[in-house]
Specification:
It is built from 9 helices and 4 strands. It is an alpha/beta fold. Helix 7 links the parallel strand 3 and strand 4.
Length: 219
C-alpha cells in the first residue's frame, strides 16, 4: 500500500483541499496499483515538508524524480549523501563554482538549501524504477501547478529558476511583476553543453534580488 502521508506544516491545508478532488483520488488509486514507486512514500512530499510556504524564497523546478535505486529523495536534483551526484547536479555545482567561486562539494544532498527556503519541487512527484517520466500526466502536474499558483498569489519577491523547455512553460503561471523569473537551458549534459546553462549566473542573480541571500555553500 503506497500511502501519501500528510505534510507537517501549512502546505497541508492545500494538500487536504486537493485530496478531496477527483484527480487526486485517481492518482492515489494509480499509485497503489504500482508494484514499486520512487521515492518511498514518506519522501514524496519532502520538498514541501522541508520548505513551508511562509519560508519560500526560491523555487527550483525539476521534472520528475531520479529513477535509479536510492537516488530519489523528494527534492528536485538532490540525492542522498551516499549516492553519486548525477550529471545534472554536477553541472549545477559547476555553475555555482563559476558564478560564486564555491568549490564543488563531494556530496549531493540539498536538504540544507531546502531548509533555507529553496523549494526543490519536481512537477511530477513519483516515478517507476528505471523508467523516466512514467508517472507523467497521472495528476501530479495539477497538484504542483496549484503549489505554483499558491506561491504566485500569496507571496512576493520569490525567485523562480526555470531550467529547460518543460520548466520554462510554467512561467505562464507566474506574475513577473511580483517575482523574479530566471530561465536557462537544462543542466543535463546534452542541454548544458549546447550553451545557455553555463554562465547563466542564476545563483548570484537570486542572491542580489533576495533580502536574505541563500548560502549555496551550506550542504
Amino acid at each position: 500500500m503506497y500511502n501519501l502521508s500528510n505534510i507537517n506544516n501549512n502546505w497541508n491545508d492545500l494538500l487536504q483541499q486537493e485530496k478531496s478532488k477527483d484527480y487526486f483520488n485517481k492518482l492515489e488509486l494509480f499509485l497503489n496499483g504500482e508494484e514499486t514507486v520512487f521515492p518511498p512514500s514518506e519522501m514524496v512530499f519532502n520538498a514541501l515538508s522541508l520548505t513551508p510556504p511562509e519560508n519560500v524564497k526560491i523555487v527550483i523546478l525539476g521534472q520528475d524524480p531520479y529513477h535509479d535505486n536510492g537516488q530519489a529523495m523528494g527534492l528536485s536534483f538532490s540525492v542522498p549523501d551516499n549516492i553519486k551526484s548525477p550529471p545534472s547536479l554536477k553541472n549545477i555545482f559547476r555553475e555555482i563554482e563559476q558564478d560564486l567561486g564555491i568549490l564543488m562539494p563531494d556530496k549531493g544532498d540539498l536538504t540544507n538549501w531546502a531548509k533555507q527556503g529553496v523549494l526543490l519541487l519536481n512537477t511530477v512527484l513519483t516515478v517507476l524504477p528505471h523508467t523516466p517520466q512514467s508517472h507523467k500526466n497521472k495528476g501530479w502536474e495539477i497538484f504542483t501547478d496549484e503549489i505554483i499558483h499558491y506561491i504566485n498569489n500569496n507571496l512576493n519577491n520569490v525567485v523562480f529558476m526555470l531550467w529547460g523547455g518543460y520548466a520554462k512553460k510554467k512561467s505562464s503561471l507566474i506574475d513577473n511583476n511580483k517575482h523574479l523569473i530566471l530561465t536557462a537551458n537544462h543542466p543535463s549534459p546534452l542541454s548544458a553543453n549546447r550553451g545557455g546553462w553555463f554562465g547563466c549566473k542564476h545563483f548570484s542573480q537570486a542572491n542580489e534580488y533576495l533580502k536574505e541571500p541563500i548560502n549555496w555553500d551550506y550542504l
